Structures are given as structure tokens and as C-alpha cells.
Amino acid sequence: MAVTDEAIEKIKEMIVSGALRPGDRLPREADLAVQLGLSRSSLREAVRALSLMRVLDVRQGDGTYVTSLEPSLLLDALSFVVEVHHDSTVLEFFEVRRLLEPPAVAIAALRIGESQIKDLRAHLDSVGPDATPEELVANDLEFHRRIAEASGNSVLCSLLENLSGPTMRGRIWRGLTEEGAWQRTLTEHRAILDAIADRQPQLAQSWATVHVAGVEQWLRTSLLLS
């Protein structure tokens, strides 16, 4: 069992046993990590995952609380998982994205302005080590949107924008369940941007293909195993 999965299970056990009840505030991160025998980083990842599952509510500046655990709230999170794991049509969106986005990246490498490249670097650098999954996904979507925009092709940009919604949940779920996925995403983003900045359209297109196909392959494997 992965370390993050173990951390999730331990927090869930506290809730099921009644040690944590709906509305309860979790102990401080350092104290809870010691109590559960976990590293603070694995505990932090578990809290992020459980917050997306609507089990925990992270309130900036206040602490982390157990949600009401109302069935309607948890069913929203369950539908998230079901949609990703049992609706294979999302693969078709990823296939179309793989066909359209890498060429758009290649065009952007030829047309993008220096100020846009500078802004993209600042955008990637804005992601800190403690970024939430929501912040990481928002950064991911904005990175791809800006590159599509830099292609100068409004039709292509619009098509890719419409593909971002149907593929977003798959990207989030991969980030939560595959160890190192977020860091790999950021590394691939930087490789794409470096190739664009060097005005190497073929290299940029290759990196974009690797990037998009990686998520698609993970999802395809997950669907086969589910």
C-alpha cells in the first residue's frame, strides 16, 4: 500500500471508530502525524485527497474539519470516481486532445512572443510545494490555455478549451492516486516551455505528445482494471 493510501486509511479509521465525528476539528498537523505514525508530507497528501472526496474540509487559517458526512455530500464525491472509472467515453476526449494539442504547441513555438514566454515561466514558478490539488489543476489548465492562445489560431484554441472540461476530472484523479504525478506534470510543463522558448516546434510537439499521452494511458489502464 502506498504511503498516502495508508495515511488516508488511518484517518478514515478515526472517523469510522468515532474518534473523529462530523464537524470535529483535526489535531494540528504535527501532532496528528506523530499520533498516526506518519510523515507530515504523507499526512498532507491524505488530507488533500480526503478534502476532494468531501470527507474533510480544509479552512485556510482555521484548520481542517470533518465535514457533515451527509450522504448527498459524499455521493457527489462518489459520482466523481464513478464518472472517471466507468465512463470510457472520456478516453475519446483524451484521444482528440492528443491529436489537437501537440500541433498547437508546435505552432505556438513559432508564434509566441517573448513576453508571453516570460509570463508562462512566472506562471509555472507560482506553484509552491504546498499547493492544493485545486491550485495545481488550475495552474495546469491555465498553462495549456495560454499555449493554445499563443498559437494564434482562435478555432484551435476554442476546440482545446472545450476539451479541458471533460478531461479535467481524469487529470485530478491521476494526480491523487499516482505517486509523483503532480511533480511529473510540472516537469513536463517546463520541458514543453523550454522547447517553445528555444523555438524548436518539433521538440515542443514531442514533449506535448508525451505529456498528454501519459494521462491518457494511465486512464486507459485504470479503466481496464476497474
Task: Put the structure in a nutshell.
The protein has ten helices and two strands. With 226 residues, it is mainly alpha-helical.
Keywords:
single chain; 226 residues; Arc Repressor Mutant, subunit A; 76% helix; mainly alpha; DNA-binding transcription factor activity; DNA binding; Four Helix Bundle (Hemerythrin (Met), subunit A); 2 domains
Structural summary, described in words:
- It holds the Pfam family GntR.
- Keywords: DNA-binding, Transcription, Transcription regulation.
- GO terms for molecular function: DNA binding; DNA-binding transcription factor activity.
- This is FadR family transcriptional regulator.
- By secondary structure, the protein is mostly helical.
- It has 2 domains: 3-69, Orthogonal Bundle (Arc Repressor Mutant, subunit A), CATH 1.10.10.10; 80-225, Four Helix Bundle (Hemerythrin (Met), subunit A) (Up-down Bundle), CATH 1.20.120.530.
- Helices cover 76% and strands 4% of the residues.
- Strands 1-2 form a two-stranded antiparallel sheet.
- Helix 1 packs across helix 3 (40-52) and helix 5 packs across helix 8 (154-177).
- It starts with a helix and ends with a helix.
- The mean pLDDT is 85.
